[in-house]
């Protein structure tokens, strides 16, 4: 997802202005010893959306573990900071000896402005946090991977109005928007999705001469709208007049990734598995840097540039264990 330079500055600002945790009141001589003796609940993992639209609902899940031999009950806190928002929610959590449990926090982004935020979950001595982009723009992240030739996985896709994520081969760069579609996901509800599996060579309206990739090559993930409310991907069968791609400033959002086919041959382009739209009309053409897409709303064909969405830069921003400054930063608040 998109690089967010403001996040680093935001983290630094949070540390400076945060209210210190109770541990900070310990004397310097005893603090290290007491921290070492005190073992508490640990945030093992965080499942937090990387993007959301304004006035929507997000859910953040975390796995909390107890590394001790006795049952522990502690406060677990969620905090979101950014723009003019500073939201803290707490839960009392009990975990048995050497056990784990899950916690969930739900937040409404009502009155949130578009921009970058940080949200995370913290216990008394550990925390994990992630970036959140509140936006109305679609985004996608498609990482390098190995495939059996019949399926690929899109790491992250954000479809603000719902829709699909499609997979295109390199004919997309030649302007063949319809014929380059070799895979499409099932319908995706509005919001942020992770690890979306896409079956290849099973696209409504397309006919293929193969059922699997036989060459390793670069493929492109591209989010598409649902424009005619039938929850069926109709871009190919409508000759590009329905279910067109999400665009940002007139540019289709894409993410390329090298896909290695197990037991396949080295490639680099289309592998002969060509598709023919059933619609039978002229396919759009363009230059190596432009692709013609059907209009999402009016069925007209317009020239749309392809733009790389920026790879997988929306990674979790960090994990801290036994860090009083970060615990205070994310866990403090009234």
Q: What would your notes on this structure say?
A:
The protein is mainly beta and 334 residues long. The protein folds into 2 domains: 6-136 and 317-331, Sandwich (Immunoglobulin-like), CATH 2.60.40; 143-308, no CATH class. The protein has 3 helices and 23 strands. It has helices at residues 6-17, 28-37, 324-331, and strands at 42-47, 51-52, 57-65, 72-82, 85-95, 100-108, 115-122, 126-134, 139-141, 145-147, 151-159, 164-168, 181-184, 191-199, 206-208, 215-224, 247-248, 251-261, 265-266, 275-277, 290-294, 301-308, 318-321. The strands form 5 sheets. Strands 10, 12, 13, 16, 17, 18, 19, 21 and 22 form a 9-stranded mixed beta sheet that branches. Strands 2, 4, 5, 7, 8 and 23 form a 6-stranded mixed beta sheet that branches. Strand 21 and strand 22 (301-308) form a beta hairpin. Helix 1 (6-17) packs across helix 3. The longest helix is centred in the first third of the chain and has 12 residues, at 6-17. It is globular, with a radius of gyration of 24 Å. The chain starts with 5 loop residues before the first helix and ends with a helix. Residues 273-294 have a biased composition (Low complexity). It holds the Pfam family DUF7282. This is DUF7282 domain-containing protein.
